[in-house]
Amino acid sequence: MGLETVKPLSTRRDALAVDAATLSAGDLDRLFPVPTGREEDWRFTPLSRLKGLHNGTAEPSGSVAVEVDAPDQVMVDSAGREDPRVGRAFQPADRVAAQAYVSFEKAVIITVPANETLDRPITVRVRGEGGGAAYGHLVVNVGELAEATVVIEHTGSAAYADNVEFVIGDGATLRVVSLQEWEDDAVHVSHHHTRLGRDSVFRSFVATLGGDLVRLSPSIAYTAPGADAELYGLYFADAGQHLEHRILVDHTVPNCRSNVLYKGALQGEGAHTVWIGDVIIRAEATGTDTYEYNRNLVLTDGARADSVPNLEILTGEVVGAGHASASGRLEDEHLFYLQSRGVPYEEARRLVIMGFFGELIERISVPELRERVLAAVEAELEK
C-alpha cells in the first residue's frame, strides 16, 4: 500500500485541532488512530522501535525523575490536567502527544513573574531510571515583559513520551536550550508547544546526541503581532541511531517573524536522521518574514539523511519567505587545502566538521553549555 494522499499543510494541521481540555483516553482511537507507518507524518519513523509509545501498549511502569533548579523569584509547583495553567499552549499533534497528555500524573509548572529578569538560567533535569515507559508534562509560563533562560537536560535510560508548553507573555523573552544526552537504549518522543504573545521573543536551541530513537516536534503558535521566533538545532547520529526533528511554524497573525536553522552529521551503518520543516503562512498573516534551512553532513557509507522543507503561503503580502535544504559529504577541496598545509587527514576532517557546527554552537545562549556541546561533538568525532 502507498502513503496517504498528501494534503496541504494547513488542511492537515487544522484537522488535528482538538480541545486539550476535553481530551481523554477514550478519545485516542477515535481522534488519533494508531499509526501504521504509511501516514505522511510517520513514514520516516521506525515504529517497531518506539516500545509501544505509539499504540497504547506502553504501560507507565517506568521511572523518570524531574528536578528543577531555579532562582528564588521563580515559582515551581505541580498540578493535574484540571489546572487551568495546563494545556494553554498544548495542541496534540499526533497519537504519541495525545497519549502522553492523557497518561501523565502531574505536570511540572514553572512560572516566571511579570517584569522579572532572571540572573541565572532555570535548569530542568530529566533523568530516566530504566524500566518501562513513562510520560511527562512540563509547563513554562513567562509573564509580561519578563526575561528568562531555561535549560532542559535529558539523561539516563527510558522509554519516555512528553509534552512541553512554553507560554510567553506580551513583550517577554524566553531562551530555551534542550539537550538530549540519553543512554544508547533510550527512546524519547517529545513535543514542544510554544505560544507567543504580542512583541514576545523566543529563542530555542536543541542539541540531540544520545538515545536509540529520539523524535522531537517543536511547534510555534502566534497569538498577536510582533512576535519573533528563532529555532536552532544540532544533531549527530552514530551507527543505528534514529534522530528525527519535525518543526511546525504556523503564522496566523500579521507582522511576525521566524527563522529555523538545523544542522546534522551522520556516521556509521544505519545512522538515520530526519528533518521536516513545516511553515504555514495563513491568509491573515500579512507582513510575515520567515526562512528555514537544514544542512546535513553524511560522513560514512551506510548513513542516511532525510530532509524535507515545506512552505505553504496563503497570502502574497509577505516581507520574505524561503526555505532550503542540503545534504552531502565533506568537501574534498576543504580537506585538500588543510592537508596541503601540513594538517593530517584526521585533524583536517575534524576541523572541517567543527567549522560546520561552529556558527550554530555560538548561538547557544549559555556559555558553559556551548563548551559542553562542543565537547560532546568532539566525543562523537572520536567514535
Keywords:
383 residues, alpha/beta, 2 domains, 16% helix, SUF_FeS_clus_asmbl_SufD, SUF_FeS_clus_asmbl_SufBD_core, Fe-S cluster assembly protein SufD, Fe-S_cluster_assembly_SufBD
Walk me through the structure:
- The chain is α/β, with parallel strands linked by helices and 383 residues long.
- It has 2 domains: 9-329, no CATH class; 330-383, no CATH class.
- 16% of the residues lie in helices and 43% in strands.
- It is built from 6 helices and 16 strands.
- The protein has helices at 9-14, 28-31, 95-103, 332-339, 345-361, 367-382; strands at 64-69, 75-79, 107-112, 122-142, 147-168, 173-180, 187-196, 201-208, 213-222, 228-237, 242-251, 257-266, 272-281, 289-298, 304-313, 320-328.
- It has a 16-stranded mixed β-sheet that branches.
- The longest helix is centred in the last third of the chain and has 17 residues, at 345-361.
- The radius of gyration is 20 Å and the shape is globular.
- The chain starts with 8 loop residues before the first helix and ends with a helix.
- The model has no long low-confidence stretch (mean pLDDT 93).
- This is Fe-S cluster assembly protein SufD.
- Belongs to the iron-sulfur cluster assembly SufBD family.
